[in-house]
Amino acid sequence: MRLKDLQRLELPPSADMHVHLRQDELMKLVVPRIRAGGVDTVFVMPNLQPPVITVAQALEYRSHLQASEPQIQYLMSLYLHPSLTPEVIAEAAAAGIAGVKLYPQGVTTNSESGVTDIEDFLSIFAAMEKHDLVLNLHGEVPYPSQKCSLEEEFLPRLKDLHHRFPKLRIVLEHCSTAAALDAVRDCGPSVAATITAHHLYLTEEISRGDPLAFCKPIPKKASDRDALIKVACSGDPKFFFGSDSAPHPLISKRTEQQVPAGVFTQPFATQLVLLAFEEAITRGVIKENEVTQERLEQFLSRSGRRFYKLPQPNDAQKIVLERKGERIPLSISSADSTLEAQRILIESFETKLIALEASCRPRAVQRIRLKKQQSEMPTSRTKRGRYGSIISPMKKALVDKLTE
Fold first, then answer.
1. Alpha helix locations (H) across 77-221?
2. How far is residue 211 CA from its own chain's centroid?
3. Which of 83, 94, 271, 397 is the 20 to 30 A CA-CA neighbour of 3?
4. By C-alpha distance, which of 94, 105, 54 is closest to 77?
5. H-run or E-run covering 232
6. pTM of the model
7. Any residues with CB less than 8 A from the CB of 273 and at least 6 apart, and which?
8. Phi-psi label, residue 97: left if phi above 0, alpha if psi -120 to 50, beta otherwise
9. CB atoms within 10 A of CB 397
10. Is the separation of the CB atoms in 181 and 228 below 8 Å?
């Protein structure tokens, strides 16, 4: 498929199987923009403050989300916590809760109540296997590793869990290394993985060099990024889309001494994946014939739904992507301007991508506009782009890393 020459593309609505929709005012700002990214189904993370550890909390949270945007299917999850019991797992399954998220303690945003020892939860995993709930893993260890990345250090635990509970459906979330992809392939069909949009662009140098690009797991080498791209367009049903879109107030990304982890991509989720493939073709990472309609549908929509045992979209449910020339805004704000969410795309992306704007259409057909940004970039530290953002030579160097 010659993506760069396409002016119009129809796809089933995307299923985003890893989202952070936050709470309170930030939730109200973010949730109405889900459909703009071509998404109609989301798997919602439970790391709120306090974390979602009861079925009642999960159902209440879902009702708040539905009040903000009723046309989205919300798959809810519980936070793996010492208060969970096999009885709670049975209650969750009966209530339609989709999964339980394991956060190693301290590894990412709002993970202070996370797991310190997986062995403490074997009875929970057995109950999840019995009641067919998904175990969602943040696959990093909570301590430094001298020999490999935190994700690679975690992988033996994934394999051990799969060995002990072979029928337990497990998702290794937001893979960031080629080793993680290999580990998922080596497991049986009950183990799958999500891949984000931003890990199709970022490397460690970019992420650590720009607070707006800082996320967990930290992106790794360019070779890892390219391995993710190849798998994402391979058609392998074990790998599907989960944006891990994680908004924060913009001021927290700019002023806090300890920068919160997360990249906000939700309003352009589908579009960014397509643009990543388009760029990867240009860089020679993948070939045009490797990006097909069927493989796009598998990664963005069908494989995730199949793993979560959801019905597939019917032929009338489509999103339409068109190149129209819109630009990604640098941030989103509440109507009264009292809350501004972090940039929709980190500054490192600004001169590489321009996204698409989705107008609100009936659920069956949603139009999304797709466009790359201008290739030239101001080199003066004081020159400003269309939206007034200062782009320094340092940022240009970071952007150039995307094409290495």
1. 86-95, 122-131, 150-164, 178-186, 204-209
2. 18
3. 397
4. 54
5. helix 222-232
6. 0.86
7. 197, 200, 232, 241, 299, 300
8. beta
9. 13
10. yes
Amino acid at 208: R
Cross-strand bridge partners of residue 79: 101
Tokens of 32: 């109405």
Which of 340, 339, 348 has the alpha carbon at shortest distance from 212?
348
- The answer to whether 30 touches 64, Cβ cutoff 8 Å, is no
Structure tokens given for 61 = 């949270």
pLDDT digits (tens, 9 = 90+) for 278-328: 999 999 999 999 999 999 999 999 999 999 999 999 989 999 999 888 777
Give the torsion through C-alpha atoms of 341, 342, 345, 350, to 10 deg: 120
The pLDDT tens digits of the residues spanning 24-74 come to: 999 999 999 999 999 999 999 999 999 999 999 999 999 999 999 999 999
- Percentages helix, strand, coil for the chain, rounded to the nearest 5? 40, 15, 45
The per-residue pLDDT of the chain, averaged, comes to 85
Q: Which of 37-51, 203-217, 390-404 has the lowest mean pLDDT?
A: 390-404
The tokens describing 44, both together, are: 């919602």
Angle among Cα 198, 108, 166 to the nearest 5 degrees reads 85
- As beta bridge partners, residue 9 has 321
Q: How far apart are CA 154 and CA 388, in angstroms?
A: 42
In DSSP terms, which residues pair with 41 in a beta bridge? 15, 73
Secondary structure of the chain in the HEC alphabet?
CCHHHCCEEEECCEEEEEECCCCHHHHHHHHHHCHHHCEEEEEECCCCCCCCCCHHHHHHHHHHHHHHCCCCEEECEEECCCCCCHHHHHHHHHHCCCEEEECECCCCCCCCCCECCHHHHHHHHHHHHHHCCEEEECCCCCCCCCCCCHHHHHHHHHHHHHHHCCCCCEEECCCCCHHHHHHHHHCCCCEEEEECCHHHCCCHHHHHHCHHHCCCCCCCCHHHHHHHHHHHCCCCCCEEECCCECCCEHHHHHHCCCCCCCECCHHHHHHHHHHHHHHHHHHCCCCHHHCCHHHHHHHHHHHHHHHCCCCCCCCCCEEEEECCCCCCCCCEECCCCCCEECCCCCHHHCCCCECCCECCCCCCEEEEECECCCCCCCCCCCCECCCCCECCHHHHHHHHHHHC
- Among 237, 316, 326, which residue's Cα sits nearest to residue 275? 326
